[in-house]
Amino acid sequence: MSYISEFIKNNILCIFFVTLGLMAWAITISARIASKKAGRFISGVPGIGGPLIIIGFLLSPVKWLALIGLLDFDMWYFFVKVVPAIFMVEIQERKYIPPDEFDGGKVIEYSQFNKEFEKITIKMEAPYADGIHYICRYIIIQKDNKYTLLKTEHNIKVIERVECDTPEECKTHVSTKVKWTKK
Length: 183
What we know:
- The protein has helices spanning 2-10, 12-38, 49-58, 73-95, 167-171; strands at residues 101-102, 105-111, 118-122, 131-135, 137-143, 146-152, 158-164, 180-182.
- By secondary structure, it is an alpha+beta fold.
- Strands 1, 2, 5, 6, 7 and 8 form a six-stranded antiparallel sheet that branches. A two-stranded antiparallel ribbon has the order 3-4.
């Protein structure tokens, strides 16, 4: 009996993390089964079970059992599909060149991509929360002999429009970090 109590005392963190990991795996697998039966998506806790099992067994004297955590498919999916997709979107946004016509006007100048030129808060009516948007690119367009500065989010979604008389006036409404490119 003393061996069992000594084992539990020495491996309490291992047991805790492995138990949490196995519970996360069980919840994820049962959510997948329930999703198939219900015909709609039911969320589990994907990608959590494997790392918890790895941490748990790395805290124990039997470290090679941490390899069991590598059986978590969702963890591999995250590293093989999700992470590269994030980097590809970033690369595509940096290389993006607006078309000659954008938002109903001719593109005159546009800025290079930057993750955070400025932060804009758009007030929403109750019961909605205020929206916070990070401006990543500016585009100056000409329409009907007027110039418009478009402040766009990371997915080239227009957040704010500023009407101006000249392109230089449009440039006064932007961040000081902007590097402009003529079309």
